[in-house]
Design a protein that fits this description.
With 677 residues, this protein is α+β, with helices and mostly antiparallel strands. The protein is built from 24 helices and 24 strands.
């Protein structure tokens, strides 16, 4: 099965990814519409002379009249009103999801007959299109595809647009189409009605004249009734839910997360708290499948067992997207025990992100490295395996990815956890001091040396762990000394002669490519191999989308307490802005962005407007200095512009005149006035 899709500003034919339908036959539908014999001359007489033939059916005559009055061009070759799904709104998206499987089922019954099947919403915009290659290629030439407007006002008389207008099934064949480019087609459509009796959508089966159209009418009507029944059930559940204004108000005002689902598993509504807990906007939730968010199998099992409404405690269901969320499902049943929908209540297993929470358990130091992405978990698993040994570890990752946090976790998980953890930023120490900082010095080693000398970082870390951050920035001459210390296991203070045994585990980190630094001669190869015993790579935040919300909620919790700010609610759009940003500064940038937002939020609701401009993809706002009154002097501005252009083009009159947009002679005059020539 093939599908016509709109991509890169044109329709493209692709093999459909929709699952194939079974072989179920529709109920027999005894309905047919005859059409009078009409040739091309009847169409020409009406279009050119406004004269109507007796053979013209009333429904076609009235449609042609509407097309003529609205100014439809009978000679237009294609549809030019094509919209993106985002422009067509939520109703379009919901209806498309609701009807896809029906379209594929109908196609399975007309396969290899040179036909295509599509559904249009109430305005005439097509939802999706499946069919045989021949039919889809012909449709492509007309721009007859998803997002195209097939109403009468757009492309003239056709089965879709005319069925929407007249409200009954019909077939439009050959020259009955108002636009000549459609004369090679036969189109059959059946409207789908809402509760108010007005057409909500249309099911259409179309194909070239030589295709097999013998069953298209009954299949179009079958599809329309099938979709119609689904819509009725969904609307009934929604009306039941929203029928009570008090109930609806309570639903939206609850602090607990609430999601209401129709009997088919479609989300009818979700309150703001549920959207915030799931990190998804309410718009994206509505119309989606509840099974994508929760394991609803316990509910189905309970209903099969005869549960009618469930216990007051509800039926526990597992959240598939956030392990920290717990959820209970409460089936809503009618007095005759028919399922009308399900209410899903969300809560957090631990305190909400904007409430005071206890720090992570100290039993597993690696819980401080927040995230559950696969790349991060691989790094943590490797870190756990090497933590117990004294093996040297090299941590590699971009700035801000949490290398020091992971180094501390390795230390706290090791047998040295009772010893000190000493961190040194090798790039922040002046080259003339780095040796005395690392190895210490004896009294009198240099002018200003402390009486009694001073131990270095290696001695301070004795019995524990020394973390050498930004190791790639260490000067080359110092790398030799460091290598000797690592090989011999002892140090000698600056100015001293006595060797001091060293009992230290080394962890190093860098955001640079050390192998590349070795090739450039900026890092010693022997030191590289000495440090690169076990290599752990920390992924950048842009490759850990699922971790962004976990980190964000943690930072909101800790920073709000630090700044003594009460956060009543976090807007889903706030989380949306975080997910859309690329985070070149990684976790560090995320933390500071959230801190800025909490500090700047005007009330107790944390929204995207408080985030820095760079996170909201806005240009940085720079203060505009108040202009000096002299800047408004036109002659001075012109003179300065001429001087700068003349200097830029190094006195070339032709280039300068062209850049200024004036003639050479005019430029000569102005240069003389300015006494430049």
């Amino acid at each position: 099965m093939y599908e016509l899709v709109w991509k890169d500003s044109r329709f493209q034919l692709v093999r459909s990814r929709q699952p194939g339908a079974g072989g179920r036959n529709p109920d027999s539908l005894t309905c047919s519409l005859s059409h009078g014999d009409m040739d091309l001359q009847a169409w020409r007489d009406y279009v050119l002379r406004g004269r109507s033939h007796d053979a013209l059916r009333d429904v076609i005559r009235r449609s042609w009249s509407r097309c003529r009055e609205s100014g439809v061009d009978p000679g237009q070759e294609k549809c030019w009103d094509i919209r993106d799904e985002r422009e067509l709104g939520e109703e379009y998206r919901l209806l498309r999801e609701l009807t896809l499987d029906v379209q594929t089922e109908i196609y399975s019954l007309i396969r290899s007959q040179g036909l295509l099947v599509t559904v249009s919403e109430r305005r005439g915009y097509l939802l999706a299109m499946f069919g045989d290659v021949k039919a889809l290629r012909a449709a492509d030439r007309l721009n007859f595809g998803p997002g195209a407007n097939w109403s009468e006002g757009s492309v003239g008389t056709n089965a879709i647009g005319t069925a929407l207008t007249c409200g009954h099934p019909l077939r439009v064949q050959g020259p009955e189409h108002y636009c000549e480019s459609h004369h090679g087609w036969v189109c059959t459509a059946a409207p789908i009605f809402g509760w108010d009796g007005k057409p909500l959508a249309v099911v259409d089966i179309s194909g070239p004249l030589d295709s097999d159209h013998s069953r298209t009418l009954e299949l179009a009507m079958y599809g329309a009734r099938l979709i119609e029944s689904r819509l009725y059930r969904m609307q009934a559940a929604q009306q039941l839910f929203q029928g009570s204004e008090v109930l609806h108000t309570l639903f939206q005002s609850q602090l607990a997360g609430l999601i209401y689902v129709d009997p088919n598993g479609r989300i009818l509504d979700a309150n703001a708290a549920a959207a915030a807990l799931l990190g998804v906007s309410r718009t994206r939730l509505r119309g989606g499948r509840i099974q994508r968010l929760f394991d609803m199998s316990p509910v189905a099992a309970a209903l099969r067992g005869g549960v009618s409404g469930g216990s007051p405690q509800g039926i526990s269901v597992r959240c598939l997207v956030h392990e920290r969320l717990s959820a209970t499902a409460h089936p809503v049943v009618s007095p005759n025990r028919a399922l009308m929908g399900t209410l899903v209540v969300l809560s957090e297993s631990k305190p909400a992100p904007w409430t005071v929470s206890k720090p992570p358990s100290a039993q597993d130091p690696f819980v401080k490295v927040l995230g559950r992405s696969q790349a991060l978990q691989e790094a943590l698993n490797l870190a756990r395996r090497v933590a117990e040994s004294d093996t040297t570890v090299l941590l590699v990752g971009e700035s801000g990815t949490g290398k020091e946090v992971l180094a501390r976790a390795i230390h706290e998980a090791s047998s040295r956890k009772k010893g000190p953890f000493v961190a040194v930023n090798c790039g922040a120490i002046p080259s003339g001091l780095i040796q005395s900082v690392l190895f210490g010095y004896v009294e009198g080693a240099f002018t200003g040396a402390r009486r009694g000398g001073s131990p270095g970082k290696f001695e301070q870390a004795s019995g524990g762990t020394l973390f050498l951050d930004e190791i790639a920035e260490m000067p080359l001459d110092m790398q030799v000394n460091l290598l000797r210390v690592l090989e011999e296991g002892q140090i000698c203070r600056v100015g001293g002669t006595r060797a001091v045994p060293m009992d230290v585990r080394i962890l190093a980190a860098t955001h640079r490519d050390l192998e590349d630094r070795v090739r450039q001669g900026l890092f010693r190869e022997d030191l590289f191999y000495r440090l690169n015993v076990v290599r752990i790579v920390l992924p950048p935040l842009r490759e850990r989308d699922e971790d962004i919300l976990i980190l964000a909620r943690h930072f909101i919790d800790t920073i709000s307490r630090k700044l003594h700010r009460t956060i009543r609610f976090v807007s889903p759009d706030f989380y949306g802005a975080l997910l859309a940003h690329r985070w070149p500064g990684n976790v560090r940038e995320l933390r500071h962005a959230i801190e800025a937002a909490i500090a700047l939020m005007p009330g107790d609701v944390l929204g995207p407007e408080s985030l820095p401009d760079r996170v909201r993809n806005l240009p940085e706002r720079r203060p505009v200095p108040a202009p000096d009154s002299q800047e408004f002097n036109l002659k001075k501005v012109e003179a300065e512009t001429i001087r700068r252009a003349y200097a830029h083009f190094k006195g070339n009159i032709t280039e300068t005149a062209r850049a200024l947009g004036i003639g050479r002679n005019t430029l000569y005059v102005k240069l003389r006035k300015l006494k430049i020539l």
